[in-house]
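PROTEIN DESIGN WORKSHEET
SECTION A - STRUCTURE
LENGTH: 428
TOKENS:
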């Protein structure tokens, strides 16, 4: 191959989902942050959608690689299966040999396993890729599994990733109960022109370019025009262009090599193709479905008496932290990567600490969770978050806030009081 000619250690544009080569655009960084949120919250249930080649699987692999050892993972990629096959697949991932079990035994084994892991202090995550292929019957099994809980917490975190058809399926009337369980949906869009340039440079650098410019700026512009910013298409075109350069004994790629690759692949400009991946901010907080774009409050961020950010609050969720993928970025060493979140609904606005280092402070006292009232000032590091309520008075919480106690009860006390429930054991 061309590695020796280009003085590279690895193939930079392989199609396999290698987390080492992951380039976190703003959208990809935010999607990964929402995957990580399933670990922060006991009822974490996130749906990530995107077209073929948008980078969903690579994000999943990167997310799974970084999980702590106390997280138990079930990862399913084969999704054209029956409900029985789905339950068997989940249990195989958990280390069981379930193929002689009937459905009742499968459900009992899954439920008992989830409760045992919860009691042992371990988190359990179910990740399903290509979830658009799941039948409604299998999606109903996922809904039931998402309901296995103790008196305080759910026992299973869920990530569904799939093509846009997944959202169409979840919006169907017959899956309303499942859709209501989902905390957040996020749609991956293609890379922008600037992100495409950075993406190509990033992958070459990981492969060993050591700062050398292998693709000319004009060549990358042509790559963007014909790939539309879709990562998999960028990889295909760049790899083919490097092969063309290799055939001509050139250690760089210019417009001529990219054009030769385009001719070989018989591509037309991306804008001329059917495009369902139009760039847009398509973060879809589930609660936003309740009341559209109604403004329910305002959050002002200030430091040293100076306002640095101000946001209208709509139904849904915003995440606040130090890095750029957050909805509100506070670039301060006193603020954690993902520091806290504010969830807004017609009934209340709630701020929650995301296991940050310095916590969130209200009136001099560190709290984990707080129902916000008009005029509240929350301190995080050297910044203040001032909340102004704009909800109708009849929907505002009627009593004073009580900080949540730290979860969770012991397995013995939960069992003794009969407070461990499986799906359908009570209202959720």
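SECTION B - SEQUENCE
RESIDUE ASSIGNMENT:
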């Amino acid at each position: 191959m061309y590695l020796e000619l280009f003085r590279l250690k690895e193939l930079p544009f392989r199609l396999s989902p290698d987390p080492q080569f992951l380039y976190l655009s703003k959208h990809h960084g935010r999607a990964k942050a929402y995957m990580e949120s399933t670990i922060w919250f006991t009822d974490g249930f996130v749906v990530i959608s995107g077209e073929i080649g948008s980078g969903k699987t690579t994000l999943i692999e990167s997310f799974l690689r970084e999980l702590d050892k106390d997280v138990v993972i079930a990862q399913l990629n084969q999704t054209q299966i029956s409900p029985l096959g789905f339950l068997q697949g989940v249990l195989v991932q958990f280390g069981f040999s379930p193929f002689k079990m009937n459905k009742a035994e499968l459900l009992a084994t899954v439920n008992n396993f989830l409760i045992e892991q919860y009691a042992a202090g371990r988190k359990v995550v179910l990740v399903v890729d290509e979830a658009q292929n799941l039948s409604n019957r299998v999606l109903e099994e996922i809904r039931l599994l998402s309901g296995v809980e103790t008196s305080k917490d759910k026992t299973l975190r869920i990530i569904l990733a799939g093509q846009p058809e997944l959202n169409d399926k979840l919006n169907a009337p017959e899956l309303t109960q499942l859709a209501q369980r989902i905390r957040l949906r996020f749609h991956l869009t293609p890379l922008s022109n600037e992100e495409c340039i950075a993406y190509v440079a990033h992958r070459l650098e990981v492969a060993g370019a050591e700062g050398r410019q292998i693709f000319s700026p004009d060549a990358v512009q042509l790559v963007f025009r014909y790939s539309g910013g879709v990562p998999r298409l960028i990889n295909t075109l760049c790899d083919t262009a490097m092969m063309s350069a290799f055939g001509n004994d050139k250690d760089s790629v210019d417009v001529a090599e990219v054009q030769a690759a385009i001719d070989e692949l018989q591509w037309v400009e991306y804008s001329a193709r059917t495009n369902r991946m139009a760039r847009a901010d398509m973060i879809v907080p589930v609660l936003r479905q309740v009341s559209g774009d109604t403004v329910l409050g305002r959050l002002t961020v200030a430091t040293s008496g100076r306002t640095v950010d101000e946001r209208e609050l709509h139904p849904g969720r915003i995440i606040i932290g130090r890095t750029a993928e957050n909805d509100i970025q506070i670039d301060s060493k006193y603020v954690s990567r993902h520091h806290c979140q504010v969830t807004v609904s017609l009934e209340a606005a709630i701020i929650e600490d995301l296991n940050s280092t310095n916590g969130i402070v209200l009136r001099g006292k560190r709290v984990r969770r707080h129902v916000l009232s008009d005029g509240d000032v929350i301190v995080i590091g050297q910044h203040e978050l001032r909340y102004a309520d704009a909800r109708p008075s009849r929907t505002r919480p009627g009593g004073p806030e009580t900080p949540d106690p730290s979860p969770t009860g012991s397995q013995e006390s939960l069992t003794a009081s009969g407070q461990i429930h499986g799906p359908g054991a009570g209202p959720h």
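SECTION C - NOTES
The chain has a mean pLDDT of 85.
The longest strand covers residues 306-313.
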